[in-house]
Specification:
single chain, alpha+beta, six-stranded antiparallel beta sheet, two-stranded antiparallel sheet, globular
Length: 186
Amino acid sequence: MQNLQLFRRLAFGLAAALTTSAAYAQATSATPATPATPANEAKPSPAATATGKIGSTDVTVNYSSPGVKGRKIFGGLETYGKVWRAGANEATTVAFSKDVTVEGKPLPAGKYGFFVIPAEKDKWTVIFNKVPNQWGAFKYDEKQDALRVLVTPRKSATLTERLVYEVKAPGLVLRWENMEVPVAIK
């Protein structure tokens, strides 16, 4: 009789322990494991927008703004002679509210994927692609280019830590690291 009572108590205790641990496991596994990050921590390459008017045309550049972070950018992170998304994450886009001329060549109003091919010397290639919504340059297709122009980059007087675009006459300027890449737009 005592053995039966002892067995019932053990069985009850074991059942209670298993039920409690199963409930705890379900409650904790429902919460995904995420690294603890402060709410105000900045993104590595935050989204940014540059807007302005060139003549009567509204120009909007949407891009992600990576930082130099002590790295060599052009000729390092961004290889010379290779198509670059001109930002981080999604490809940079440029939108024009009216037809424009870019470096003297016509480009219809619209939204374009914006790519650059940096060169070690001389001119860089700037590309306006008909497919604006792309992830990086991984699926970039030269056959979809609306316009390619050559531009002359220049060394900047100071280091620009975060990639930035500026829109104002006579066009737009990409600035990052120790380079400025002006693109004439009318």
